Amino acid sequence: MTTPKKEPLHTFFDDPKTDVLISTILSLTTELSVTRERLDTLERILEQNGAIQRDAIETYEAPPPAAKERAVLRQGILTNVVQKMNAYFHSSSKADR
Amino acid sequence: MTEKRLSFSPNHDEAARQAFVGALKGYANIVVHKQLEAIYDGEIAPKFEAEHQRAPAARDDISDAVEGLPLYKYWGLLTYHSQDMLFDSVGSTVQRTKAKEEATARDLTTSSEKLGALHLDDAMTPSKPITDIEIHRQPGGYIRAENDDDLDAARLYAGTIEIYRNAKAMGDGSKAGSDSIGLFTSDVFRKHYPNKQPRRILDLGCGTGEQTIGFKRRFPEADVHGIDASAPFVRYAHAWAESEGEPITFHHMNAQETSFPDEHFDLIVSHILFHETSHKILPQIMAEAHRLLAPGGVMLNLDVPYQPEATPLLKQVTNHWQVRHNGEPFWTGFIQTDLKEKLVQSGFDREKVLYAYEGLGPTAAYLIFGGEK
Q1: Other beta carbons less than 10 A from residue B254's beta carbon
Q2: What is the pLDDT of residue B1?
Q3: Interface with A, mutate which of B73, B81, B90, B325 (most A CBs under 10 A)
Q4: What is the value of pTM for the model shown?
Q5: Cβ-based interface (< 8 Å): residues of A facing B
Q6: B129 preceded by cis ω (within 30°)?
Q7: Kind and range of the H or E run holding B252
Q8: Which residue has the higher pLDDT, B23 or A87?
Q9: Closest Cα partner for B217 from B209, B208, B228?
């Protein structure tokens, strides 16, 4: 049985770099919104439970295991946000040769 | 014994991402679209009128001017990329919960206590366009399945459809799994045919089955059947109906060539099916429905309300964009089809044809068309 093939990416501006940049900003904004919402959830729950004082957030330093987990998280976000630019410049470099 | 249920359960970040994508789509569809409308009303339409000594009357009169606007390109880009983001964000939930949900579906559909039935047909060949086009640009389309347990295509559809509907102001705020369109269509049927009590109902192109359940809930005494051209969709629909505790029979069939006997149903319904068909198949489905209806039976379809008589020209341009960029090959073909005439040609009496717009929730309206045999 045949199944549909994926179409090549559509672009809307004369210079496709514009499309790449705007779509990257959209991804970036999504991740920012998700993170802000998670932070908001956390702070509200902790505050409800009397578990934190907000000042403690400003002075927090991550111990090594937590710092390592954060590095993984950061790398994931980096990949998520920049992958469209990367894919664009990667494929256009190949086409140039 | 634990009672197992299927669910669409995004975790915190998945839910936040899906909510953001919904907001972004709403921003493109409403805020940016209104800015385009203002430019059209203030500049493009007056300029056309000055040059031609008449108001623009058809989409072709204005499409070049609108499509040249940087804001239109930006609107297209937002709409296009937010569609990818929708499938990415819901796809994360689908993949993370795949093993558990597919195991639950297996348990529900192999249980000795199951309520409904599923009829698959290995020889069935789905008709175009779902064999060639990723409808709505859903990755992999509607029919792809790696194996007989694979419900990815159906779960991706079921997880995205309400976000999409609500962001286009075509929903009522429902979440994934809602039966609200089925309930709404049932109520429209009751409004137009208050004295009819259907005993056997067929839902054409039932998709993932949520709305078929809505019909069963409104007409609990009726024997309800759903058919769809996608095997993974009807497999999921069967599991979902079992999970919801509703006895429904699903079949893997094309709507234009079913295997039911003549005059078998007294209500045949569909929702957002016809705009995903073609000029060739649309009249075939109507003729097949006419064959399947008992005398006095009713066909009642719900679909997109963007017919030229009811749609401003600018909206016709942005709708036509769907054909080129959103996996909707028959979107413009459907809204330009004379449905009343097609119903008559399919055997319905002209005076018994139904064609009306009906409102759903605070913002949505749908076209209702069909007729009594």
Answers
A1: 19
A2: 38
A3: B81
A4: 0.90
A5: 1-7, 10, 12-13, 19, 22-23, 26-27, 29-30, 33-34, 37-38, 41
A6: yes
A7: strand B249-252
A8: B23
A9: B209
